[in-house]
Amino acid sequence: MGNCFKTPSTDDITLLHDNDSQDGTQQAAPVPVGPPPPYQERAPVYYPSPNVSRPANMLTEDEQIKIAQRLGLISHLPTGVYDGCSKRGKECAICMCEFVMGEALRYLPCMHVYHKDCIDDWLMRSFTCPSCCEPVDAALLTTYETN
Amino acid sequence: MAVDQSALLLQRQLRDMIKNPVPGFSAGLVDDEDIYKWEVVIYGPPDTPLEGGVFKAHLTFPREYPQKPPKMLFLSEMWHPNIGQDGLVCISILHEAGEDKWGYESASERWLPVHTVETILISVISMLADPNDESPANVDAAKEWRENRTVFNKKVAKCVRKSQDEFL
Q: What are the residue boundaries of the UBC core domain, all occurrences included (chain B) (predicted)?
């Protein structure tokens, strides 16, 4: 996501090249000049706002920034693996399935626990805990302050 | 993967609901082969003008459920501020996360992936009993509910009778 921040002196073409070199297997050979290559398929799909789903390479710059920030924040939330004796709950409230030994979990600052995949998908749509509706970013700040 | 998860979750809810029916409504599938389309019958809440009504509705779930909300459509004729003339239910918990068309719905009022058929229908029943005229889907019904309750209740009574006739 190195292409998410504006550099005042350069233009968009260089930003696009950065993008290609990062996640592109399509254009492995370096292309120093000329127009950017046409975008290819198989980019991850994001939800910049409700009812809008777009592959990563079709996002506007603002949407890219928003999504990069969100991904960054999510990556700060602790994860773990279910070891069979979690005191914080035995079931994921999103898929309603009991945790199974070895499954990846994500812990929210409000102390609610979910499957990592279930909650990460949700947090990209809304940055709130589905169980208590606490905004995750506010709760994150509080944990930083108290630590 | 996501498709399987939503189907499993809905099957689980259907099983639970058959085992432990909830008063106020009954639920099943429109077609036994399609777990994403439910048919529900809501009983008009007691002590409201809707009492005695048996209202049929369909819930259509997207493959992305529970990350995205279902849509709910009444097949029975309804006269209610929060149900469109086409039967579409307009309540905030069925609005997708982040959606804030009118600028006043907080995250807790909107869709959450912890909602189930049961919690949705409980909200709908509460909406039936207690309309929210601030965001009407049926503006005429909302105006009448506010300004001319007698006429409003008469129209509702007609819907109740019609729902009973259709149910027989």
A: 5-165
